[in-house]
Write a structure and sequence with these properties.
alpha/beta, Rossmann fold, 2 domains, seven-stranded parallel β-sheet, 10 helices, globular
């Protein structure tokens, strides 16, 4: 079953005030100007641009010429990533411009989130994409900031945005291998893995950090954890009568997979088993049977509950670790 686009009623209401106006998209980039997202964040970007265009808002290249500033949503609004300092700068560089932050997940257990709005005076609309984030940030923000609920912007896309499918070529098994892995408890502060892992420290110290990160991602073997592999193989044996190969790989990782790879590998799936939210969302939008594996962090479980629980072909699986 191909799922229809989800309605964004509260966001539609906010954007209506700017219909016929102009918007500048604040860039989510690091100090080198590189986008901080992955292949799943590109889905968010595409859905965001499509929705705002259909709402009658015209993009401009300079913030000074915009009627409203827009921040792409996603999962980067976390105390465990660079996003805290990034968004604090973005949101306060133009304090007199209205600001819309598209649906995101938030988690700042050790920071004063209201600090990111310290200089703003213009209307500010912050959208959350699941209830836990809404409950987390609402008490921290001043009354002039409007906190609203929305759906992840990837849900604004439809099957027509991705072209023809190649049904049933493989079972796609996608396990993320970073700090947000479902076996990690994000309620406890933790650090990311060593920049190069198995590469000798002496060699690593001679490399610029971006090069080190790139090598880590390219050279680290894509070996599924034993728990994930067992779950995928057990699920596959129960689900598929005939032999269908299992394709393992973190297709959201842009250092290993292009955006075309991401689309094509999901589109060719007969069954998708994943700990990656947007692999699951794309699979669900295409009507592919999908198993989302959650962990302690509220993001995936909350978005499933808010936006996907009525999709009969999508199942939320409690952590298998």
């Amino acid at each position: 079953m191909v799922h229809a686009a989800i309605k964004q009623e509260e966001l539609t209401g906010v954007l209506a005030a700017y219909r016929g106006g102009t918007a500048y998209w604040l860039p989510l980039v690091d100090k080198r100007g590189k986008d901080v997202g992955n292949n799943g964040d590109v889905l968010i970007e595409l859905g965001s641009r499509k929705f705002c265009e259909e709402a009658g808002i015209v993009n401009v290249a300079l913030p000074e010429k915009a009627d409203v500033l827009i921040v792409r949503g996603g999962g980067r609004m976390s105390g465990y990533q660079l996003a805290y300092n990034l968004i604090a700068g973005l949101w306060n560089n133009f304090p007199n411009k209205p600001l819309i932050v598209l649906p995101s997940s938030y988690y700042f257990p050790e920071k004063d989130f209201a600090h990111v709005l310290r200089s703003r005076s213009a209307p500010t609309h912050i959208f959350c994409r699941e209830e836990r984030s809404f409950e987390h940030i609402s008490p921290q923000l001043p009354p002039y900031v409007q906190v609203l609920m929305g759906h992840d912007m990837a849900f604004c896309l439809s099957v027509d945005d991705f072209g023809a499918r190649h049904i049933g070529e493989h079972i796609l098994a996608v396990e993320r291998n970073d700090y947000e892995h479902p076996s990690n408890d994000l309620a406890k502060p933790s650090s990311e893995p060593s920049p190069l892992g198995h590469i000798k420290a002496g060699f690593a110290n001679k490399l610029p950090r971006p090069v080190a990160r790139s090598l880590r991602n390219r050279l680290r073997p894509e070996t599924p954890s034993p728990e994930f592999k067992l779950f995928v193989e057990t699920t596959a044996s129960e689900y598929v009568a005939s032999q269908v190969p299992i394709r393992y790989g973190d297709v959201s990782n842009q250092r290993r997979y292009s955006q075309a790879d991401f689309y094509n590998l999901v589109k060719a799936s007969k069954l998708t088993v994943t700990t990656r939210l947007h692999v699951g969302i794309l699979s669900a939008l295409l009507g592919i049977d999908t198993k989302l594996i959650a962990g302690p962090y509220h993001k995936l479980r909350g978005i499933y509950s808010h936006s996907m629980s009525d999709m009969s072909h999508v199942e939320l699986v409690d952590s298998i670790w």
